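Marked as duplicate of an earlier ticket. Keeping the data here for the record.
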Amino acid sequence: MEIDQKSGRNDLVTNMDKETETFFVEKIKEHFPDHRVFGEEGIAEKLEDLAGVVWIIDPIDGTLNFVLQQRDFAISIAIYVDGVGELAYIYDVEREELYTGERGKGAYLNGKKIPPLDKNKTLDDLLLIINQSTLYHYPELRKAISRSRGLRLQGAATLEFMSVATGRAGAYVSRTLQPWDIAAGKIIAGEIGAIVTRMDGTEIDMLTGGTIVVASPKIHEELVQNYLS
């Protein structure tokens, strides 16, 4: 396996990232030549808008995990039409878990429907997913952690989205995500009742990414109003 650094020693890219993205781009263009593709490794197109049909792909989300642990990494594919998320696929490779979602038709794990989030649960009932960089810039979040059942990290944004979607965690908060980190998870989490916004509660720009909060409506409102404002 060939490994290179991108922005730093913990931001890696492998030949597998590039080859997987190339495979998807070639197959998409073969079958859907009018569709556009937006991907992490720069093999796909550079987009200035989301008009028409756009595939947003992350060939390996959690590359550092892939290199060092051989677990907690995923393949992520989302389809947006005129900026609206329509279809999403997240495949947890090591666990052989395929998460899927379609706008208005629910979300599934290996073909079994994922139930809606329990909207009555609060911060006191659940785990939180927040990385150290986010805690450094938003120290008030430490108060939220002290109320919760604890803190967990996976190191792969798409799988952290799925931890919220399946009820294993109450919220996922991050200050630095890219569109391909968000695209598929936003669709799937939305289908089971999660709210997905920027930290200030506004809509996410799917061309640039940025900060993010993923949680049930009650927990989302509490985090944004009490710990992130």
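See parent ticket for discussion. The domain at 3-113 is CATH 3.30.540.10 (Fructose-1,6-Bisphosphatase; Chain A, domain 1).
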